Amino acid sequence: MDNLIFELKDVYFSYLGKYPALNGIDIKVKQGEKIAVIGANGSGKSTLLHILDALIFPDKGNIKVFGKELKEENFNNEDFSQNFRKKVGLIFQNPDIQLFCPTVKEDIIFGPLQLGMEKEEIQKRLKDITHLLDIENFLDRSPHHLSIGEKRKVAMASTLIINPDVLILDEPTAGLDPLTARHIVDLLIHLNSEGKTIITSTHDLHIIEEISDTVYVFSQDKKIIKSGPSIEILKDDQLLRDHNLVHIHSHHHKGKIHIHPHIHLDHHTD
Question: What is the H or E stretch that residue 108 is in?
Answer without folding.
Answer: helix 104-114
